[in-house]
Design goal:
Elements: E1 3-5, E2 42-45, E3 62-69, E4 72-82, E5 90-91, H1 92-98, E6 103-122, E7 127-137, E8 142-148, E9 156-164, E10 169-177, E11 188-194, H2 198-213, E12 222-228, H3 235-238, E13 242-245, H4 250-265, E14 270-275, H5 282-294, E15 306-308, E16 311-317, E17 320-322, E18 326-328
Parallel strand pairs: 11-12, 11-14, 12-13
Antiparallel strand pairs: 1-15, 2-10, 3-4, 4-9, 4-10, 5-9, 6-7, 6-8, 6-9, 6-10, 15-16, 17-18
């Protein structure tokens, strides 16, 4: 069984909450946004469909009369796209209740005239429009809509809907931001324990290096080490990623070796553990960094959701209960369905 950590709600923190009782919203005038924020302010980037992981396109985008190609969604006259999906929904439980964030903005780039809507999907599967605006997209990333999360009661997910106004439009980038200051300065290390699964771990190392380690925004605040229990990753295969040769102490022993590296030899504050046969969207790691930066509780922990490679839309587990045996939580949920997006 090959699994991977996904993104979006996989890193959400457990929370209670009252049932939905009231939603407030309103029109907001567009204004330009200077993108000179701390990296933690970038809460959640819109993920485009990724065929390399095998997930259905509808795990990323829903809609009609659109095509996706090479990082750009083209929506034709009369069509629309919606981000009420597992990978791109924005959780009020996570960002407001667990991270204490009040005000967020959605920015976007592309081309053409678009009608944007921010919609709240409640735990009772009721949909409320929070705000909307018609605007023209261009190559420059600009603020489209603002939302005050304090005006939203109860548990729910926010999502963006984009509707064509006349001619076709293109959507190439979207992201949720906040100007609110992070609660703490985080340095996030990643530990991968490896034993004779180079066909999985070497591509993962290359992807993380390309997407994160060589991204100047995350330089010095996110790092990766591979604890090599089989001692067979070559220098060329490592390609600049730190590899720690280690005797075969099993997965837990490898994770402990990596944890000790970050504890004793660095000033990193948090560590993520990943198996060598698991993969995740790079944006999941970036999102984890922002969550830890804003989490109300300084001892908060985050965990991943697990999918099977042969059925990448079906959840194996998101956490587990341990009594006499390990019992997965949310096993078998089809996350192609927005109604099951609250896990």
């Amino acid at each position: 069984m090959i699994g991977w950590i996904s993104c979006s709600e996989i890193f959400s923190l457990k929370s209670g909450g009252d049932s939905h009782s009231n939603v407030l919203g309103g029109k907001h005038k567009r204004r330009m946004l200077k993108l000179t924020m701390n990296v933690a302010n970038h809460l959640q980037r819109v993920l485009m469909p990724n065929a390399k992981f095998g997930s259905s396109e509808s795990m990323y985008i829903n809609g009609s009369s659109y095509v996706y190609h090479d990082g750009v969604v083209t929506v034709y006259p009369g069509g629309k796209i919606s981000l009420d999906t597992y990978y791109n929904a924005f959780s009020t439980t996570l960002w407001k209740d667990e991270c204490g964030i009040s005000n967020v903005s959605f920015i976007a780039s592309g081309s053409g005239m678009v009608h944007f809507r921010v919609v709240l999907l409640t735990e009772n599967l009721v949909r409320y429009e929070i705000s909307s605006i018609s605007t023209e997209l261009n190559e420059e990333k600009k603020e489209i809509l603002k939302v005050n999360l304090d005006d939203i009661d109860g548990i729910g997910i926010l999502y963006i809907e984009m509707i064509s106004l006349g001619d076709k439009f293109e959507f190439s980038f979207g992201e949720w931001l906040t100007k609110q200051e992070a609660l703490r300065s985080v340095k996030l290390g990643m530990v991968v324990t490896h034993f004779d699964r180079k066909k999985y771990v070497v591509p993962s190392m290359a992807r993380i290096k390309n997407d994160i380690l060589e991204n100047e925004k995350y330089s010095g605040v996110i790092d990766l080490v591979v604890v090599d229990n089989s001692k067979n990753i070559t220098e060329d295969e490592a390609n600049g990623v730190k590899v720690i040769p280690n005797k075969n102490t099993g997965g837990a022993g490898g994770f402990m070796r990596g944890l000790l590296h970050y504890k004793d030899e660095t000033e990193f504050t948090h560590v993520i553990f990943m198996d060598d046969d698991a993969s995740c969207e790079s944006e999941s790691i970036k999102k984890a960094y922002s969550i830890l930066s804003y989490a109300k509780k300084d001892n908060s922990a985050i965990s991943g959701a697990l999918f099977m490679e042969s059925s990448p839309d079906i959840l194996i587990e998101k956490g587990a209960v341990f009594d006499s045996m390990c019992r997965p939580i949310f096993h078998g949920w089809n996350l192609n369905n927005a109604a099951e997006g609250f896990v």
